[in-house]
Design a protein that fits this description.
7 strands, alpha/beta, 2 domains, 172 residues, Hypothetical Protein Ychn, Chain: A, 5-stranded parallel β-sheet, 45% helix
């Protein structure tokens, strides 16, 4: 029967015309879309770490995501070399570790004296909280990071945040 097949259509002067949508449907859709648009950016912004105040001419973020001790030493060497080349007052430098690279920032790492020396010279170190939590699941407790190293919600996210603010990314 034609009426069953076209139940959402009505006959109007020998033509089929669509039914008019209900006004509450538009209001409901508008409210849903508005809620998504206004809440998602606010939620995302809450998770980012604040950007450092800097007047340095050169802003560099070094990425360490490798567990290889040679690569970890290389990152520390690059940081020291950049400070010598540009001078501490012309360089703002942050080393961000995530994944296996977070091992560089653990309390019992053999490079602690070099890390402390770089921190004393103004280099910041950031460790990925996601990685530390995952280490904790495997080890039964979260490993301790060295004193002075800040935890960031996501290491890769921190690198992208700094890059969007004009920082150059280096991955030695």
């Amino acid at each position: 029967m034609i009426q069953n097949r076209y139940a959402s259509l009505r006959v109007n002067s020998n033509r089929l015309a669509p039914r008019k949508p209900m006004p509450w449907l538009f209001a409901w859709l508008f409210a849903c879309v508005w809620g998504l648009l206004t809440s998602v950016p606010a939620f995302a912004a809450q998770q980012e770490m604040p950007l450092p105040d800097t007047f340095a001419e050169h802003k560099v973020v070094l990425q360490i995501s490798d567990r290889d001790p040679f690569k970890q030493t290389l990152v520390l060497n690059v940081a020291a070399n950049l400070q010598r080349y540009y001078g501490a007052s012309n360089l703002d430098l942050e080393i961000v570790g995530f994944g296996p690279g977070v091992r560089l920032m653990l309390k019992d790492n053999v490079n602690q004296s070099r890390i402390q020396s770089l921190m004393n010279a103004g280099v910041r170190f950031s460790a990925c909280s996601n990685t530390l939590k995952n280490f904790g699941k495997k080890l039964g407790k979260e490993p301790e990071i060295a004193e002075g190293i800040q935890r960031v919600p996501a290491g890769a996210g921190r690198i992208l945040q700094l890059n969007a603010a004009g920082w150059q990314i280096l991955k030695p």
